[in-house]
Every structure is written in structure tokens, then in C-alpha cells.
Amino acid sequence: MTEEMGRAPRTTVVLDRDGTLLDFYEMFHRFVLDLHRQEGVTPPPREEILGFGYWSAITSGALHIGSVRVRDRVDEVAHRYMAHGTLYPGVVPMLSALSGAGVRIALVSSWVGTDSTLALLERYAVRECFGPVLTRDDLAARDAEVPDADCKTTLARRALDGLGHAPDHRLYVVGDTPSDIALGRRLSAVVVGVRTGNGGGLPPEGTPEGPDVVLRSAADLGTLVLGAGRAA
């Protein structure tokens, strides 16, 4: 089908997973509660567990639950608790609309969980909307400890190659964190921030550190991308 018949011009979208497509709060909460239960200690309130300070204490290695340093176990959230994750409202029809219009879509995460992510997408019947679905699990063993920014850049470039993306094709990078903004800049993409996940703390759009466009959620991405395609 030609572009004049309603398909988008050659367009690629690289989507972040956590906080962009995936609402991971219930996954994470259940993981923390299970650790407290295993260690026989009382958990803090839900709002504390889901706060940024709690996550920072985990990533710094400072947080222990009983005898467990939580950072050593946190990958279990993506590997074992994905069944408790949900796609944000409106994401499924958005993916179907983009895929149906011929937009090529990749999912890239600097965290682990490729197999569990694929299972999630199958559960929502949207796996066929995606080309590559890549996480840190897909790095070569020698690169397993690279920083998140380098991991995501490597995986995104691999995904673009797999999709046949070319420099003259339109490219969008979509995410909820400053690292997603930086990735989009490296790839010379239209950078789209979302307010879900950690997106409430993104810099304002149009600033050097901010995205080009900010959306309420990824559910609104179809209108942005397909509208731009029709205007091109």
C-alpha cells in the first residue's frame, strides 16, 4: 500500500519499556513484600516502597531487607514478577494503530527480562506489532556490566539495523527518563517524553535537556506519529 493510500511514510519508533509502556509498580511492590515476608520483617507503607528514595536506596546498594541486599535480587522483578505488570491504558490500541499504518516498532530496555517481556506482549496480543524486543539480557557476556546509557544505545542501534531503518526515515524515541532523552539525541530522533512512570520529573519540552514533545502517556503516540505522517 502506498503512502498516498493512508500508510505512514517510512517511520520507526523505539519504545522504552518500564514507565513508558509498562506500569511496573505492582510488580515491584509484590517483589518487596515477598522479600520482607521471606526475611520475617515488617514492610514499610506502599507509598514509601514506591517512592523515588526507596528505589535510589536499592540502586546505590544501601537498602537491605533482613540479610538481603536488595540490589543483588532486584532483577527478579523483571524476570519473575512480569505477570503482575500491566500495559498502561490505551497502549494496546496505540500499538495496533501504528503497526497497522506500517510504522516499524522496537522495544528496548536497559534492564533485564527479554523472555518475560515477550510473554507480556503475547498476553496482550501485541507481540506482532513489534520487530526487535531487546533488553540487557541480549547483550554479549563481555558487555553485561556496561552502564545503562551504553546498553540502551547498543540495543537501540541493533534494533534499528534489524528493522531496516535508514537515515532518511523518520525516527521517534519514546521514554520517561532523562536517559531516554539522551538516547533520542544520540540517534538524531524526534524525542518524545511521557508523563507516566518517572516522566513527571522530565525537563520541559524544548529545553536542551528536555524532549521535543511531551505526551500525557504513550497512548497518545499514535495521534502524534500518524498525524506527522499525514502532514509530511
How would you explain this protein's 3D organization?
This protein is an alpha/beta fold and 232 residues long. Helix content is 38%, strand content 15%. It has nine helices and ten strands. The protein has helices at 25-39, 46-49, 52-59, 76-80, 91-100, 114-123, 148-163, 178-186, 221-231, and strands at residues 11-15, 22-23, 64-65, 68-69, 86-87, 104-108, 133-134, 170-175, 190-194, 213-215. Helix 5 packs parallel to helix 9 and helix 7 packs across helix 8 (178-186).
The overall pLDDT, averaged over residues, is 93
The shape is globular
Number of helices: 9
* Strand adjacency order, main sheet: 7-6-1-8-9-10
Number of strands: 10
Helix content class: 25-40%
Judged by helices, strands and strand pairing, the structural class is alpha/beta
Q: Mind telling me the C-alpha Rg?
A: 18 Å
Cα end-to-end separation: 17 Å
Low-pLDDT segments, ≥5 res: 1-6
The H-and-E topology, N to C, reads as EEHHHEEHEHEHEHEHEEH
Largest sheet: 6 strands, parallel
Beta content comes to: 5-15%
